[in-house]
TrEMBL record:
This is Putrescine transport system permease protein potI. It comes from Sulfuriferula multivorans. It is found in: Cell membrane. Belongs to the binding-protein-dependent transport system permease family. CysTW subfamily. GO terms for cellular component: plasma membrane. InterPro entries: Bact_Polyamine_Transport, MetI-like, MetI-like_sf. Residues 71-258 form the ABC transmembrane type-1 domain. The chain crosses the membrane at residues 12-36, 75-94, 106-129, 141-162, 183-204, 239-265. It comes from the Bacteria. It is a multi-pass membrane protein. Keywords: Cell membrane, Membrane, Transmembrane, Transmembrane helix, Transport. GO terms for biological process: transmembrane transport.
Length: 280
């Protein structure tokens, strides 16, 4: 084969990848386009006008649901889940570095919820709260239900990060007289910052769009995915598309901020390493 000439397989793979991207993002693009219809617009093409009318209608006190309240609850719940998942995963990663008796059993128990059907977990948590005579709410029972989903992912990420961690950095710091807490704060945390950022991103995004595990545990007040599911049965206007567009934009914004922070931490770490070499 001549130098620089691509094989037919390359073009077939490129076409296949293009179709996959279209299949993945095509529905999102369609929803985004339809959400900008005019006041007379419907749920299908062709479009009738172009405006931001349906975005204004989202928070105009519609009779079809509590959009603003559901959005606020999902945002707060996502932030709480993110913080708990990040802290718990990091502490668990530290604890599992020393192979204690029963570590394997605890690990498999911790990630077992990943293979249990989400609806079963949701029903179990709802039944448990009913048995204990405790009201189900979005910040108690729903929080517990979502942590059964986010914590295993956080644990797997942190275990992988700690497996690649070079302990010689800690040993050098302790050799210079640093305490265990200072070693964690000034050595371990900065090195693992990108992994912790990944855990935080997983925690928030998995919580923000979680439906099945929250369905029977949220109580009387819905989170945004539950509200969106309820709207599908009675929403006959593009307002539901406007909601989908806003939630998609929020998801991409969170991902973008996480990537920007990861790049910043990487450059900061490289700059500090360069300064250290120059000082030496």
């Amino acid at each position: 084969m001549a130098h620089g000439k691509r094989s037919p397989a390359f073009y077939w793979l490129a076409i296949l990848f293009g179709l996959f991207v279209l299949f993945l993002y095509g529905p999102v693009i369609v929803i985004a386009v339809l959400s900008f219809q005019g006041p007379e617009g419907g749920l299908t093409f062709p479009m009738h006008g172009f405006s931001t009318h349906w975005f204004h209608q989202l928070f105009a006190g519609q009779s079809i649901g509590d959009i603003s309240g559901a959005f606020g609850r999902s945002l707060k719940l996502g932030l709480v889940v993110m913080v708990i998942t990040t802290i718990a995963s990091f502490l668990a990663g530290l604890g599992f570095r020393s192979r204690f008796k029963g570590a394997s059993a605890i690990f498999y128990i911790a990630i077992a919820s990943l293979i249990v059907p989400s609806v079963v977990i949701s029903l179990g948590i709802g039944a448990m709260f009913e048995l204990l005579k405790i009201d189900r709410t979005w910040i108690t029972s729903a929080l517990g239900a979502q942590l059964t989903w986010t914590l295993p992912f956080g644990l797997l990420i942190m275990f992988a990060a700690f497996n690649r961690f070079n302990k010689s950095y800690e040993e050098a710091a302790r050799g210079l007289g640093a305490s265990s807490l200072r070693v964690i704060w000034e050595i371990v945390l900065p090195i693992l910052a990108p992994s912790l950022l990944g855990v935080a991103l997983f925690g928030f995004t998995l919580s923000y769009d979680e439906l099945s595990r929250t369905s029977q545990a949220a109580g009387a007040l819905n989170t945004l995915p539950l509200e969106l599911q309820a709207m599908q049965t009675n929403a006959t206007t593009p307002v539901i598309y406007a909601l989908g567009t806003l939630t998609t934009l929020l998801s991409f914004t969170v991902i973008g901020l996480a990537l920007a922070l990861a790049i910043f931490l990487k450059r900061r770490r490289a700059r500090h390493g360069s300064d250290a070499v120059k000082t030496a």
